[in-house]
Specification:
This protein is mainly α. The protein has a single domain, classed as Up-down Bundle (Growth Hormone, Chain: A), CATH 1.20.1250.20. It contains 19 helices and no strands. Helix 4 (about 65-85) runs antiparallel to helix 5, helix 5 packs across helix 17 (about 360-390) and helix 12 runs antiparallel to helix 18 (about 390-410).
Length: about 425
Protein backbone atom coordinates (compact mmCIF):
# COMPACT_ATOMS: atom_id res chain seq x y z
CA UNK A 1 0.00 0.00 0.00
CA UNK A 2 1.41 3.36 -1.08
CA UNK A 3 0.78 6.72 0.53
CA UNK A 4 -1.50 7.43 -2.45
CA UNK A 5 -3.70 4.43 -1.61
CA UNK A 6 -4.15 5.55 1.99
CA UNK A 7 -4.95 9.09 0.85
CA UNK A 8 -7.52 7.79 -1.64
CA UNK A 9 -9.01 5.55 1.04
CA UNK A 10 -9.36 8.51 3.39
CA UNK A 11 -10.98 10.62 0.65
CA UNK A 12 -13.35 7.84 -0.40
CA UNK A 13 -14.31 7.16 3.21
CA UNK A 14 -15.75 10.68 3.41
CA UNK A 15 -18.99 9.65 1.69
CA UNK A 16 -19.76 6.73 4.03
CA UNK A 17 -18.73 8.88 7.01
CA UNK A 18 -21.30 11.51 6.00
CA UNK A 19 -23.94 8.86 5.30
CA UNK A 20 -23.54 7.42 8.79
CA UNK A 21 -23.57 10.94 10.22
CA UNK A 22 -26.77 11.93 8.42
CA UNK A 23 -28.66 8.74 9.22
CA UNK A 24 -27.63 8.70 12.87
CA UNK A 25 -28.26 12.36 13.63
CA UNK A 26 -31.86 12.07 12.42
CA UNK A 27 -32.46 9.45 15.13
CA UNK A 28 -31.69 12.03 17.82
CA UNK A 29 -33.33 14.91 15.95
CA UNK A 30 -36.64 13.06 15.61
CA UNK A 31 -36.98 13.00 19.39
CA UNK A 32 -37.26 16.79 19.34
CA UNK A 33 -39.87 16.81 16.60
CA UNK A 34 -43.51 15.79 16.58
CA UNK A 35 -43.46 11.98 16.13
CA UNK A 36 -46.32 11.68 13.67
CA UNK A 37 -46.59 10.03 10.23
CA UNK A 38 -44.98 12.96 8.45
CA UNK A 39 -41.87 12.64 10.55
CA UNK A 40 -41.85 8.91 9.99
CA UNK A 41 -41.56 9.80 6.32
CA UNK A 42 -38.76 12.21 7.25
CA UNK A 43 -36.80 9.32 8.72
CA UNK A 44 -37.18 7.35 5.49
CA UNK A 45 -36.84 10.23 3.00
CA UNK A 46 -33.03 10.23 2.89
CA UNK A 47 -33.07 6.46 2.26
CA UNK A 48 -35.49 6.94 -0.64
CA UNK A 49 -33.13 9.60 -1.98
CA UNK A 50 -30.23 7.15 -1.74
CA UNK A 51 -32.30 4.70 -3.82
CA UNK A 52 -32.57 7.19 -6.69
CA UNK A 53 -29.02 8.46 -6.28
CA UNK A 54 -27.53 4.97 -6.45
CA UNK A 55 -29.80 3.79 -9.25
CA UNK A 56 -29.17 6.66 -11.67
CA UNK A 57 -25.76 8.04 -10.75
CA UNK A 58 -24.06 4.64 -10.77
CA UNK A 59 -24.71 4.39 -14.50
CA UNK A 60 -23.77 8.03 -15.07
CA UNK A 61 -20.48 7.38 -13.27
CA UNK A 62 -19.69 4.46 -15.59
CA UNK A 63 -20.32 6.77 -18.56
CA UNK A 64 -18.68 10.08 -17.58
CA UNK A 65 -16.05 8.82 -15.13
CA UNK A 66 -15.41 8.63 -11.40
CA UNK A 67 -13.39 11.82 -10.88
CA UNK A 68 -15.97 14.45 -11.91
CA UNK A 69 -18.83 12.90 -9.95
CA UNK A 70 -16.52 12.48 -6.96
CA UNK A 71 -16.80 16.20 -6.10
CA UNK A 72 -20.16 17.26 -7.54
CA UNK A 73 -22.15 15.02 -5.22
CA UNK A 74 -20.45 16.45 -2.13
CA UNK A 75 -21.17 20.03 -3.22
CA UNK A 76 -24.87 19.16 -3.32
CA UNK A 77 -24.70 17.47 0.07
CA UNK A 78 -23.06 20.47 1.75
CA UNK A 79 -25.48 23.02 0.26
CA UNK A 80 -28.65 21.13 1.17
CA UNK A 81 -27.38 20.23 4.65
CA UNK A 82 -26.95 23.94 5.40
CA UNK A 83 -30.48 24.63 4.16
CA UNK A 84 -31.84 22.17 6.76
CA UNK A 85 -31.12 24.79 9.43
CA UNK A 86 -33.69 27.15 7.92
CA UNK A 87 -36.73 24.94 7.34
CA UNK A 88 -40.08 25.82 8.88
CA UNK A 89 -42.31 22.94 7.77
CA UNK A 90 -42.26 19.15 7.58
CA UNK A 91 -42.40 18.99 3.77
CA UNK A 92 -39.24 21.11 3.52
CA UNK A 93 -37.37 18.71 5.81
CA UNK A 94 -38.59 15.74 3.80
CA UNK A 95 -37.56 17.34 0.49
CA UNK A 96 -34.10 18.39 1.68
CA UNK A 97 -33.41 15.01 3.29
CA UNK A 98 -34.46 13.35 0.04
CA UNK A 99 -32.03 15.47 -2.02
CA UNK A 100 -29.25 14.83 0.49
CA UNK A 101 -30.02 11.13 0.13
CA UNK A 102 -29.64 11.40 -3.65
CA UNK A 103 -26.18 12.93 -3.17
CA UNK A 104 -25.15 10.17 -0.74
CA UNK A 105 -26.59 7.49 -3.03
CA UNK A 106 -24.53 8.89 -5.88
CA UNK A 107 -21.35 8.75 -3.80
CA UNK A 108 -21.68 5.04 -3.02
CA UNK A 109 -20.92 3.74 -6.53
CA UNK A 110 -18.54 6.62 -7.31
CA UNK A 111 -16.20 6.31 -4.33
CA UNK A 112 -16.24 2.53 -4.00
CA UNK A 113 -15.58 1.80 -7.68
CA UNK A 114 -12.76 4.36 -7.84
CA UNK A 115 -11.12 2.92 -4.73
CA UNK A 116 -11.58 -0.72 -5.79
CA UNK A 117 -9.94 -0.05 -9.16
CA UNK A 118 -6.81 1.39 -7.54
CA UNK A 119 -6.32 -1.07 -4.67
CA UNK A 120 -3.91 -4.07 -4.68
CA UNK A 121 -5.57 -7.50 -4.57
CA UNK A 122 -4.40 -8.57 -1.10
CA UNK A 123 -5.69 -5.42 0.57
CA UNK A 124 -8.85 -4.84 -1.47
CA UNK A 125 -11.54 -6.36 0.76
CA UNK A 126 -10.10 -4.98 3.99
CA UNK A 127 -9.63 -1.50 2.53
CA UNK A 128 -13.14 -1.46 1.08
CA UNK A 129 -14.32 -2.70 4.44
CA UNK A 130 -12.75 0.35 6.07
CA UNK A 131 -15.33 2.42 4.21
CA UNK A 132 -17.94 0.69 6.36
CA UNK A 133 -15.89 1.49 9.45
CA UNK A 134 -15.98 5.12 8.31
CA UNK A 135 -19.79 4.85 8.11
CA UNK A 136 -19.96 3.73 11.73
CA UNK A 137 -17.40 6.33 12.84
CA UNK A 138 -19.63 9.00 11.29
CA UNK A 139 -22.72 7.46 12.89
CA UNK A 140 -21.08 7.19 16.31
CA UNK A 141 -19.65 10.73 16.29
CA UNK A 142 -23.02 12.13 15.17
CA UNK A 143 -24.87 10.14 17.83
CA UNK A 144 -22.78 11.54 20.67
CA UNK A 145 -22.85 15.02 19.11
CA UNK A 146 -26.63 14.89 18.73
CA UNK A 147 -27.02 13.60 22.27
CA UNK A 148 -24.88 16.48 23.57
CA UNK A 149 -26.78 19.07 21.53
CA UNK A 150 -30.13 17.75 22.72
CA UNK A 151 -28.91 17.76 26.32
CA UNK A 152 -27.52 21.30 26.37
CA UNK A 153 -29.51 23.08 23.65
CA UNK A 154 -32.90 21.43 24.14
CA UNK A 155 -35.42 19.97 21.70
CA UNK A 156 -35.17 22.98 19.39
CA UNK A 157 -31.60 21.98 18.51
CA UNK A 158 -32.84 19.45 15.94
CA UNK A 159 -32.53 21.86 12.98
CA UNK A 160 -28.88 22.53 13.83
CA UNK A 161 -28.27 18.80 14.17
CA UNK A 162 -29.46 18.30 10.59
CA UNK A 163 -27.12 21.06 9.36
CA UNK A 164 -23.98 19.76 11.11
CA UNK A 165 -23.04 17.44 8.21
CA UNK A 166 -22.03 20.50 6.18
CA UNK A 167 -18.88 20.97 8.29
CA UNK A 168 -17.22 17.57 7.60
CA UNK A 169 -18.71 17.76 4.09
CA UNK A 170 -16.69 20.88 3.25
CA UNK A 171 -13.50 19.34 4.64
CA UNK A 172 -13.95 16.14 2.60
CA UNK A 173 -14.80 18.13 -0.54
CA UNK A 174 -11.53 20.08 -0.28
CA UNK A 175 -9.60 16.84 0.26
CA UNK A 176 -11.03 15.29 -2.91
CA UNK A 177 -9.93 18.08 -5.25
CA UNK A 178 -7.28 16.75 -7.65
CA UNK A 179 -8.05 13.04 -7.20
CA UNK A 180 -6.86 11.12 -10.31
CA UNK A 181 -9.25 9.20 -12.55
CA UNK A 182 -9.31 5.40 -12.51
CA UNK A 183 -6.91 4.00 -15.15
CA UNK A 184 -9.16 0.96 -15.58
CA UNK A 185 -12.10 3.20 -16.45
CA UNK A 186 -9.94 5.25 -18.85
CA UNK A 187 -8.83 2.06 -20.60
CA UNK A 188 -12.43 0.85 -20.85
CA UNK A 189 -13.18 4.06 -22.77
CA UNK A 190 -10.14 3.74 -25.05
CA UNK A 191 -8.34 6.72 -23.44
CA UNK A 192 -4.99 4.96 -23.31
CA UNK A 193 -2.70 8.02 -23.19
CA UNK A 194 -4.64 9.46 -20.26
CA UNK A 195 -4.41 6.13 -18.44
CA UNK A 196 -0.63 6.13 -18.95
CA UNK A 197 -0.31 9.66 -17.56
CA UNK A 198 -2.40 8.84 -14.50
CA UNK A 199 -0.37 5.70 -13.71
CA UNK A 200 2.94 7.57 -14.08
CA UNK A 201 1.63 10.36 -11.87
CA UNK A 202 0.82 7.89 -9.09
CA UNK A 203 3.55 5.24 -9.42
CA UNK A 204 6.41 7.20 -11.01
CA UNK A 205 7.88 7.91 -14.45
CA UNK A 206 8.91 4.28 -15.03
CA UNK A 207 5.44 2.84 -14.38
CA UNK A 208 3.44 1.30 -17.24
CA UNK A 209 -0.13 0.20 -17.77
CA UNK A 210 0.85 -3.17 -19.27
CA UNK A 211 -0.36 -5.25 -16.31
CA UNK A 212 -3.69 -3.41 -16.18
CA UNK A 213 -4.17 -3.80 -19.94
CA UNK A 214 -3.41 -7.53 -19.73
CA UNK A 215 -5.75 -7.94 -16.77
CA UNK A 216 -8.67 -6.08 -18.37
CA UNK A 217 -8.14 -7.93 -21.67
CA UNK A 218 -9.18 -11.17 -19.95
CA UNK A 219 -12.76 -9.88 -20.05
CA UNK A 220 -13.99 -9.90 -23.62
CA UNK A 221 -17.42 -8.61 -22.60
CA UNK A 222 -18.38 -5.01 -23.38
CA UNK A 223 -21.03 -4.62 -20.75
CA UNK A 224 -23.96 -2.24 -20.48
CA UNK A 225 -26.90 -1.91 -18.13
CA UNK A 226 -28.68 -4.80 -19.87
CA UNK A 227 -25.85 -7.13 -18.85
CA UNK A 228 -27.04 -6.90 -15.26
CA UNK A 229 -30.41 -8.37 -16.23
CA UNK A 230 -29.21 -11.71 -17.56
CA UNK A 231 -26.98 -14.68 -16.81
CA UNK A 232 -24.46 -14.78 -14.00
CA UNK A 233 -24.54 -11.02 -13.44
CA UNK A 234 -28.30 -11.06 -12.81
CA UNK A 235 -27.78 -13.75 -10.16
CA UNK A 236 -25.05 -11.62 -8.62
CA UNK A 237 -27.33 -8.57 -8.57
CA UNK A 238 -29.99 -10.65 -6.80
CA UNK A 239 -27.44 -11.98 -4.30
CA UNK A 240 -25.82 -8.62 -3.53
CA UNK A 241 -29.09 -6.72 -3.45
CA UNK A 242 -30.91 -9.18 -1.17
CA UNK A 243 -28.10 -9.77 1.32
CA UNK A 244 -27.41 -6.01 1.44
CA UNK A 245 -31.12 -5.29 2.01
CA UNK A 246 -31.45 -7.92 4.74
CA UNK A 247 -28.39 -6.57 6.54
CA UNK A 248 -29.13 -2.84 6.40
CA UNK A 249 -32.91 -2.77 6.90
CA UNK A 250 -32.73 -3.65 10.62
CA UNK A 251 -29.59 -1.53 10.96
CA UNK A 252 -31.15 1.60 9.47
CA UNK A 253 -34.36 1.11 11.41
CA UNK A 254 -32.35 0.90 14.64
CA UNK A 255 -30.37 4.02 13.76
CA UNK A 256 -33.34 6.07 12.62
CA UNK A 257 -35.67 5.12 15.46
CA UNK A 258 -33.19 3.91 18.09
CA UNK A 259 -34.54 6.04 20.95
CA UNK A 260 -38.12 5.29 19.87
CA UNK A 261 -37.41 1.53 19.86
CA UNK A 262 -35.76 1.63 23.28
CA UNK A 263 -38.70 3.65 24.61
CA UNK A 264 -41.03 0.93 23.32
CA UNK A 265 -39.03 -1.59 25.37
CA UNK A 266 -39.69 0.59 28.41
CA UNK A 267 -36.28 2.27 28.50
CA UNK A 268 -37.35 5.87 28.80
CA UNK A 269 -36.32 7.14 32.22
CA UNK A 270 -34.09 10.20 32.08
CA UNK A 271 -31.40 9.97 29.41
CA UNK A 272 -31.01 6.18 29.53
CA UNK A 273 -32.65 5.77 26.10
CA UNK A 274 -30.25 8.16 24.35
CA UNK A 275 -27.22 6.80 26.21
CA UNK A 276 -28.18 3.22 25.31
CA UNK A 277 -28.63 4.28 21.68
CA UNK A 278 -25.19 5.93 21.67
CA UNK A 279 -23.54 2.84 23.19
CA UNK A 280 -25.19 0.53 20.64
CA UNK A 281 -23.86 2.80 17.89
CA UNK A 282 -20.36 2.45 19.33
CA UNK A 283 -20.64 -1.35 19.42
CA UNK A 284 -21.64 -1.40 15.72
CA UNK A 285 -18.31 0.30 15.04
CA UNK A 286 -16.38 -2.15 17.23
CA UNK A 287 -18.03 -5.12 15.49
CA UNK A 288 -16.51 -4.12 12.16
CA UNK A 289 -12.90 -4.28 13.39
CA UNK A 290 -12.42 -8.10 13.60
CA UNK A 291 -14.44 -8.54 10.40
CA UNK A 292 -11.82 -6.51 8.49
CA UNK A 293 -9.22 -9.14 9.33
CA UNK A 294 -11.52 -12.13 8.90
CA UNK A 295 -12.62 -11.18 5.38
CA UNK A 296 -9.06 -11.87 4.14
CA UNK A 297 -8.27 -14.84 6.41
CA UNK A 298 -11.59 -16.58 7.01
CA UNK A 299 -12.94 -15.76 3.54
CA UNK A 300 -15.94 -13.78 2.32
CA UNK A 301 -18.52 -16.57 2.09
CA UNK A 302 -18.03 -18.23 5.53
CA UNK A 303 -17.83 -14.82 7.22
CA UNK A 304 -21.13 -13.78 5.64
CA UNK A 305 -22.94 -17.02 6.52
CA UNK A 306 -21.79 -17.23 10.14
CA UNK A 307 -22.57 -13.56 10.72
CA UNK A 308 -26.11 -13.82 9.37
CA UNK A 309 -26.74 -16.92 11.48
CA UNK A 310 -25.56 -15.20 14.66
CA UNK A 311 -27.53 -12.03 13.84
CA UNK A 312 -30.81 -13.97 14.03
CA UNK A 313 -30.33 -14.88 17.71
CA UNK A 314 -30.55 -11.36 19.25
CA UNK A 315 -33.81 -10.59 17.45
CA UNK A 316 -35.34 -13.87 18.63
CA UNK A 317 -34.23 -13.14 22.21
CA UNK A 318 -35.65 -9.61 22.09
CA UNK A 319 -38.90 -10.87 20.58
CA UNK A 320 -39.23 -13.53 23.28
CA UNK A 321 -38.71 -11.14 26.21
CA UNK A 322 -39.71 -7.59 25.22
CA UNK A 323 -40.45 -6.68 28.86
CA UNK A 324 -37.10 -7.79 30.23
CA UNK A 325 -34.65 -5.73 32.29
CA UNK A 326 -32.92 -2.73 30.70
CA UNK A 327 -29.57 -4.53 30.78
CA UNK A 328 -31.03 -7.53 28.90
CA UNK A 329 -32.44 -5.32 26.13
CA UNK A 330 -29.28 -3.29 25.60
CA UNK A 331 -27.13 -6.46 25.82
CA UNK A 332 -28.93 -8.16 22.92
CA UNK A 333 -28.98 -5.03 20.78
CA UNK A 334 -25.24 -4.75 21.44
CA UNK A 335 -24.73 -8.42 20.53
CA UNK A 336 -26.53 -7.85 17.24
CA UNK A 337 -24.33 -4.82 16.59
CA UNK A 338 -21.20 -6.82 17.41
CA UNK A 339 -21.86 -9.83 15.15
CA UNK A 340 -23.21 -7.79 12.23
CA UNK A 341 -19.71 -6.64 11.29
CA UNK A 342 -19.30 -9.35 8.62
CA UNK A 343 -22.22 -8.41 6.34
CA UNK A 344 -21.58 -4.73 7.01
CA UNK A 345 -18.02 -5.04 5.70
CA UNK A 346 -18.97 -7.23 2.73
CA UNK A 347 -21.75 -4.88 1.58
CA UNK A 348 -19.01 -2.79 0.01
CA UNK A 349 -16.58 -5.53 -1.05
CA UNK A 350 -18.84 -7.99 -2.87
CA UNK A 351 -20.59 -5.60 -5.34
CA UNK A 352 -17.26 -4.06 -6.38
CA UNK A 353 -15.58 -7.45 -6.83
CA UNK A 354 -18.31 -9.30 -8.74
CA UNK A 355 -18.79 -6.94 -11.72
CA UNK A 356 -16.40 -5.78 -14.50
CA UNK A 357 -15.13 -2.22 -14.95
CA UNK A 358 -17.72 -1.26 -17.59
CA UNK A 359 -20.60 -1.80 -15.16
CA UNK A 360 -18.96 -1.78 -11.73
CA UNK A 361 -20.39 1.57 -10.62
CA UNK A 362 -23.72 0.76 -12.29
CA UNK A 363 -23.94 -2.53 -10.37
CA UNK A 364 -22.96 -0.90 -7.09
CA UNK A 365 -25.60 1.75 -7.71
CA UNK A 366 -28.31 -0.82 -8.43
CA UNK A 367 -27.38 -2.89 -5.37
CA UNK A 368 -27.39 0.25 -3.22
CA UNK A 369 -30.79 1.21 -4.65
CA UNK A 370 -32.26 -2.22 -3.85
CA UNK A 371 -30.94 -2.11 -0.30
CA UNK A 372 -32.05 1.45 0.38
CA UNK A 373 -35.59 1.13 -0.93
CA UNK A 374 -35.96 -1.90 1.33
CA UNK A 375 -34.40 0.01 4.19
CA UNK A 376 -36.70 2.98 3.52
CA UNK A 377 -39.76 0.73 3.63
CA UNK A 378 -38.47 -0.90 6.81
CA UNK A 379 -37.74 2.46 8.41
CA UNK A 380 -41.20 3.71 7.48
CA UNK A 381 -42.88 0.58 8.83
CA UNK A 382 -40.83 0.18 12.02
CA UNK A 383 -42.79 2.62 14.25
CA UNK A 384 -46.07 1.53 12.66
CA UNK A 385 -45.26 -2.13 13.39
CA UNK A 386 -44.35 -1.32 16.99
CA UNK A 387 -47.67 0.49 17.41
CA UNK A 388 -49.78 -2.14 15.65
CA UNK A 389 -48.13 -5.45 16.67
CA UNK A 390 -45.88 -4.55 19.58
CA UNK A 391 -42.12 -4.38 19.82
CA UNK A 392 -41.73 -8.13 20.47
CA UNK A 393 -43.48 -9.13 17.25
CA UNK A 394 -41.51 -6.48 15.37
CA UNK A 395 -38.26 -8.10 16.52
CA UNK A 396 -39.50 -11.43 15.14
CA UNK A 397 -40.07 -9.73 11.78
CA UNK A 398 -36.44 -8.57 11.86
CA UNK A 399 -35.32 -12.13 12.66
CA UNK A 400 -37.22 -13.47 9.63
CA UNK A 401 -35.67 -10.85 7.36
CA UNK A 402 -32.20 -11.72 8.63
CA UNK A 403 -32.89 -15.43 8.05
CA UNK A 404 -33.78 -14.65 4.43
CA UNK A 405 -30.37 -13.00 4.09
CA UNK A 406 -28.74 -16.19 5.41
CA UNK A 407 -30.62 -18.46 2.98
CA UNK A 408 -29.90 -16.30 -0.09
CA UNK A 409 -26.23 -16.04 0.87
CA UNK A 410 -26.00 -19.81 1.40
CA UNK A 411 -27.39 -20.41 -2.10
CA UNK A 412 -25.61 -17.67 -4.06
CA UNK A 413 -22.57 -16.26 -2.23
CA UNK A 414 -19.29 -16.92 -4.12
CA UNK A 415 -15.77 -16.81 -2.67
CA UNK A 416 -13.56 -14.03 -4.09
CA UNK A 417 -10.71 -14.17 -1.58
CA UNK A 418 -7.30 -13.76 -3.25
CA UNK A 419 -8.71 -13.07 -6.73
CA UNK A 420 -7.98 -10.04 -8.90
CA UNK A 421 -10.88 -7.78 -9.87
CA UNK A 422 -11.00 -9.39 -13.31
CA UNK A 423 -10.89 -12.95 -11.93
CA UNK A 424 -13.59 -12.19 -9.36
CA UNK A 425 -15.86 -10.41 -11.85
CA UNK A 426 -15.53 -12.78 -14.80
Amino acid sequence: MLKFHWKLLFQSAGGPFLDGWLLSIIGIALVGMQTDLKLTITGASALIGIFFGGLFFGRITDIVGRQLMYTLDLIALVVFSVLCAFVDSAWQIILLRFIIGVAIGADYPIATSLLAEWLPVKKRAAMLGLLVVAWFVGATVATFLGFGMAEYLGDGSWRWMLATAAVPGIIILLMRIGTPESPRWLLSKGRIDEAKRVVKRVYGAEATIDSIVADEAKIQLKAGFGTLLKGIYFKRIIFCGVFYLCAVTPLFAIYTFGPVILNAFGIHSGNISNVGYALISLVFLIGCIPALRMTETFGRRPLLLWSFFLMIIPFVALGFAPNAHVGFIIFWFAMYALVSGGPNILEWSYPNELFPTDIRATAMGVVTAISRIGAAVGTFLMPLSIEQFGVGQTMYFMAILTAIGFVVSFLLAPETKGKSLVEASS
